[in-house]
Specification:
This protein is mainly alpha-helical. It has helices at about 5-20, 25-40, 50-70, 80-95, 100-115, 120-135, 140-160, 165-180, 185-200, 205-220, 225-245, 250-265, 265-285, 290-305, 310-315. Helix 2 (about 25-40) packs across helix 4 (about 80-95).
Length: about 350
């Protein structure tokens, strides 16, 4: 589904173009004005697919502006609102599956902020995490791991093991360890992180849910599928309450259930979940989103496992128009890669 560009974003884009069309006294003056104009835009949630067309325009402006900022020796580390905008752009590139562009932008931003602000500055650490996240999403978990480890050490040293920022860093590291199939280490870290999160933040807080998802992923990797399924079902219900029925977080939790059901040989239950999930992914994130494509492939695999080959071939040719509720009336599913925040 196509969502319109936010009017405030369109105005900011036009204003920045106008600044560069003029005959200014100097490039540095124009760069500062353009930087400040973009920083003054309203904050849009980069996790919400409805903002992605707006962020696509913002990202193009930011990428061009950063080239001019370097040429004019104007820092991207000022003002604070511009740093915040760059972090949101990096979130958007991760969430919208443009990790390759995210790595290039994050490397540039991280290098400059580390030099100007210091490696321990909160925004430098944010940029470090965004770089690691995009590397992870690009399939380069080995390169991401030392970055996640560095942030976790820094947060632990500065704030302590139970601080919310440290717990989030532990979640990111735990997800990376699972992706690297170091299931023993990831289980120990994720179990400890979930326990700390529940005690410090509560069971329904987003970082706690992320830690629980990571623990389920470790259990899945250790082939403790029944326990993983129980956790995924609990996570899905909590995501429905905290994030909404059709948020990507909820849909990803539902996908996790479907994968685990299939692994346990419960093919009909998995088929019902995927048949319900597939059109919802397409409505929320579009037909080209990986969630949509993976749900499609899972549904075909479910049908083939059930011996319904003709139906599987029909579905293989396109997204079906039907959806079925899960046996208990809920909307359930497991993502092979664990989302980091």
């Amino acid at each position: 589904m196509m969502h319109p560009v936010d009017p405030a974003v369109a105005r900011a884009h036009a204003d920045v173009l106008d600044l560069f069309r003029r005959d200014p006294a100097g490039l540095d003056e124009v760069c500062r004005a353009a930087r400040d104009r973009l920083a003054a835009m309203p904050v849009l949630d980069p996790h919400d697919p409805r903002t992605w067309n707006s962020y696509a325009l913002i990202t193009a402006d930011v990428q061009t502006l950063l080239v001019y900022l370097r040429e004019a020796e104007v820092p991207s580390s000022e003002p604070t609102h511009f740093r915040s905008l760059l972090i949101r752009v990096l979130y958007y590139l991760y969430e919208s599956e443009k990790a390759k562009a995210g790595v290039l932008l994050a490397e540039l931003v991280h290098r400059e902020w580390e030099a100007r602000l210091g490696e321990a500055h909160a925004d430098t650490l944010n940029a470090t995490v965004r770089l690691a996240a995009c590397l992870y999403a690009q399939g380069e978990a080995k390169r991401a791991r030392p970055l996640f480890e560095r942030v976790h050490r820094q947060q632990t040293s500065q704030f302590g093991a139970d601080d919310p920022a440290t717990l989030l860093a532990a979640c990111n590291l735990g997800a990376c360890l699972t992706e690297l199939e170091d299931y023993g280490a990831s289980f120990l870290l994720n179990e400890d992180t979930r326990r700390r999160c529940e005690r410090r933040l509560g069971k329904d807080q987003d970082t706690t849910l992320l830690a629980t998802e990571n623990l389920a992923g470790s259990l899945f990797g250790l082939e403790r599928h029944d326990r993983a399924l129980a956790l995924y079902r609990d996570i899905h219900q909590r995501r429905r309450r905290t994030s909404g029925e059709n948020s990507l977080l909820t849909l990803n939790a539902q996908a996790s259930i479907a994968i685990t059901l299939h692994t346990l040989g419960e093919y009909e239950a998995a088929r019902a979940v995927n048949a319900d999930l597939l059109p919802r992914y397409e409505r929320v994130a579009g037909k080209d989103h990986s969630g949509t494509k993976k749900a499609h492939k899972r549904l075909v695999r479910n049908l083939r496992a059930l011996g319904r080959y003709e139906e599987a071939e029909e579905v293989h040719g396109g997204i079906p128009r039907y959806g079925s509720p899960t046996p208990d009336g809920g909307h359930r599913a497991l993502a092979p890669r664990h989302r980091e925040v």
